[in-house]
Design brief:
Elements: H1 2-15, H2 24-41, H3 45-58, H4 63-75, H5 79-91, H6 99-113, H7 120-140, H8 145-157, H9 161-174, H10 179-191, H11 195-208, H12 213-225, H13 229-242, H14 247-259, H15 263-276, H16 282-296
C-alpha cells in the first residue's frame, strides 16, 4: 500500500505545473522597494532612499531596486549617484536584458554633460558615453525609438550630421507619429543650409502632427531662409495659435513681419518676444532689439 501511494505521489509531482519560486530575500527586497516607491511618490526622499538601499542590501541582485533608486537620484539631480544605481541595475538585469535600463543610463549621462562648468571636451566625452549606452539599449530593443532620437541629438551636438540623419530617420521609420524626430531633422537641415530639404521633412511632419508648435516653427524658419516671408508668417501664426508664449515662435514671427515689411506687427511681436525671452541666447535678443530700432526708423 505504501509503495502504491509513493508511486502515485511521484506521478502527481510530474504532472503538476511548476512555478518559479522567489527567494525569501527577493520577496523582502521587493517589499522594501515598494515602500521606497511609495515614499518617493510622497516626495519623502530620505525615507525613499533608506527603503531602497535596504532593498538592495537585502538582495544585492535585485535589478529593479537599483533601477528605482536611480530614478530617485535622477529626480534629485544627483547624477553621479543615479549613474551608479543604473549601472547596478544593468549588472543585475540578467538575460535577455532590458534596453530601458541602458536608456536610463544614457539619459543621466546626457544630463551630466549639461551641468554648469562642464568643459566642451568633458561634454563630448559624456555625449559619446551616452551614445554608447543608447546603442546598447537599441541592441536589446531595436524599436526603442526615443533611443534613436537621442542618438541623433547627440551626433548633431558632435557636429556629425550624417550619423544624426541616420538616427533621426530610423526614429521616424519606427514611430512616424513621434514629431520631435521630424522637428530635429528639419531644423538640422536648416542649420546646415538645406532649407528646401528641411521643408520636405517638416511638411511631412505637419501631416503627421499638425498641432506641434515646434514643427510649424521649423517650417517658418525654413520658409524665411528661402526668402518667403509671407509664407513664413503663416507658418509662425499656426505655431503661435498652438503655443502663444513660445519665445522662438515670437522671435521668428517678428522677424518674418520685418521682412515683408509689416513694421507695426514686427515691432509689437518682437517687443512681446523680449518680454518673454527668458533664457534665449543674447545674440537673438540683440537681433530683436536691432530689428525693432530698424522698424522705428524712417521708411
Amino acid at each position: 500500500m505504501r509503495r502504491t501511494l509513493t508511486a502515485a505521489l511521484l506521478a502527481a509531482a510530474v504532472l503538476l505545473p511548476a512555478c518559479n519560486l522567489t527567494s525569501q530575500a527577493r520577496v523582502e527586497s521587493i517589499k522594501r522597494m515598494n515602500e521606497g516607491i511609495q515614499q518617493l511618490n510622497k516626495n519623502n526622499m530620505s525615507a525613499a532612499e533608506k527603503a531602497m538601499q535596504e532593498a538592495i542590501k537585502t538582495d544585492p541582485t535585485h535589478a529593479e531596486a537599483y533601477l528605482n533608486l536611480g530614478k530617485m537620484y535622477r529626480k534629485q539631480q544627483k547624477w553621479v549617484d543615479a549613474e551608479k544605481a543604473f549601472r547596478g541595475a544593468i549588472e543585475n538585469m540578467g538575460e535577455p536584458g532590458h534596453g530601458e535600463f541602458w536608456f536610463e543610463l544614457g539619459s543621466v549621462q546626457v544630463a551630466q554633460s549639461a551641468e554648469v562648468g562642464t568643459s566642451r571636451a568633458e561634454q563630448e566625452t559624456k555625449w559619446r558615453d551616452a551614445i554608447a549606452s543608447f546603442d546598447e539599449a537599441i541592441k536589446l530593443k531595436p524599436t526603442l525609438y526615443k533611443a534613436h532620437y537621442q542618438v541623433g541629438v547627440l551626433y548633431e551636438k558632435l557636429d556629425e550630421p550624417e550619423q544624426a540623419d541616420v538616427a533621426y530617420r530610423e526614429c521616424i521609420k519606427i514611430n512616424g507619429t513621434y514629431s520631435p524626430c521630424f522637428v530635429s531633422l528639419g531644423n538640422m537641415y536648416i542649420d546646415y543650409g538645406f532649407s528646401a530639404v528641411a521643408m520636405a521633412v517638416l511638411d511631412t511632419g505637419t501631416k503627421v502632427n499638425e498641432t506641434d508648435a515646434d514643427m510649424w516653427n521649423g517650417m517658418g524658419r525654413a520658409l524665411l531662409n528661402l526668402n518667403k516671408p509671407k509664407e513664413a508668417v503663416d507658418a509662425y501664426k499656426k505655431a503661435r495659435r498652438i503655443d502663444p508664449d513660445k519665445p522662438d515662435v515670437l522671435f521668428g514671427l517678428g522677424m518674418a513681419y520685418a521682412e515683408i515689411p509689416m513694421r507695426k506687427e514686427a515691432e509689437e511681436t518682437l517687443d512681446e518676444f523680449l518680454s518673454k525671452a527668458g533664457q534665449s541666447p543674447e545674440h537673438i535678443k540683440k537681433a530683436a532689439q536691432d530689428t525693432i530700432m530698424r522698424m522705428q526708423g524712417p521708411i
